[in-house]
UDP-N-acetylglucosamine 1-carboxyvinyltransferase
Amino acid sequence: MEKLKIAGGYPLKGTVRVSGAKNSAVALIPATILAESPVTIEGLPNISDVEILKDLLEEIGGKVRISEDEMTVDPQTMISMPLPNGKVKKLRASYYLMGAMLGRFKKAVIGLPGGCHLGPRPIDQHIKGFEALGAQVTNEQGAIYLRADELRGARIYLDVVSVGATINIMLAAVRAKGRTIIENAAKEPEIIDVATLLTNMGAKIKGAGTDVIRIDGVEKLNGCRHTIIPDRIEAGTYLILGAAMGEGVVIDNVIPHHLESVIAKLREMGVHVESGDDQIFVKTAQNLKAVDIKTLVYPGFPTDLQQPFTTLLTRATGSSVVTDTIYGARFKHIDELRRMNANIKVEGRSAIINGPIQLQGAKVKASDLRAGAALFIAGLMAEGITEVTGLEHIDRGYSELVEKLNGLGATVWREALTQEELEHMKNI
Ligand SMILES: CC(=O)N[C@H]1[C@@H](OP(=O)(O)OP(=O)(O)OC[C@H]2O[C@@H](n3ccc(=O)[nH]c3=O)[C@H](O)[C@@H]2O)O[C@H](CO)[C@@H](O)[C@@H]1O
Ligand SMILES: C=C(OP(=O)(O)O)C(=O)O
């Protein structure tokens, strides 16, 4: 096991290239199960969620080849192998195996997913969708059992706007008989990316990216080649870092339109941000103003950037309020930021940040992926050395993190945990 060490307080400058989107990758890979010939996905990020999904596809008999950032999946030899335990629990997106295996084999057994602990994360809307398509769904000892004689198109109204349920129902419906309509669908760019892959495979999907998606089922899907969209959350993380410490940082391979809500907030704070076609330039300012943030479904401010943005707000003058309407308990990073001298209070679904404060290096622990992002940004802003543990969370979503940060002039390295630190981790 390793920790991340950061020598903080130095300005950052240069260009950072964004990798393919985690939340697309983790749906595109299971989507390959639905094809009847090989599918190639280009531009995948080098993250543990991708690695685990590759292993899961191999467990069900798929042939997977990886060359640099490209994965080719031959789904022809796959079988409906039950996956009640094991690696499915290591990530959230293993739930997409439910929709994809149900769509292809009309049956699946998948253990309830893992992923970031952000408070309750039910999957009732996914199950409601599978049932509407004709599946019988039961929960037996923490695994979801799905079975259908036949999948038939249906009209499904989502009670909550859910990225996962929208994609999962799409996966199950593309090979169902007849038309499926998903109403109150989520509109995130990753949903459009998955619909693009499925359409290239031969599916008939209209309306992805709006709140009504229509799918006309087809009997068979074929292989194709697909290039993944850039990761707007990774790009947003570097944007926030550039706003905190950048003397001129260019974020390359980004779709600026995906980050409008974040760019607007940075400008409100006084940060200098300029968007090009596939690049964003960001430069910090002497005096940053406090702002209020409320997370919303896309195109609102993304919950996944709430935690790193909170770190930036410690430098702003005045009192900022960050409210998470998606995950009301996504505040585990706050105690760690306090160890670094931040002045933050949590009240219900909101964090109140008083600044400006000079953060100080400390030993901190990432409890989830974006808490990790909040902490490595804090380490880069802080005076002195910061040590971040819990890297297994950060490795789920940040491709080549150390190389990218050092490429901007940071001094960051990974170091093995000492025996004493390992003992301490076992006891907490
Ligand atoms: C792998 C992936 O893409 N993860 C993203 C996805 O997670 P995920 O797909 O799990 O998030 P959802 O969009 O489903 O969740 C949104 C809200 O709906 C609730 N809900 C969801 C499903 C359901 O059946 N019932 C229900 O009540 C959730 O508890 C949450 O409050 O979208 C989240 C919200 O943008 C992001 O933080 C995650 O990074
Ligand atoms: C919450 C996240 O991921 P997951 O849904 O995969 O746990 C995230 O990417 O911030």
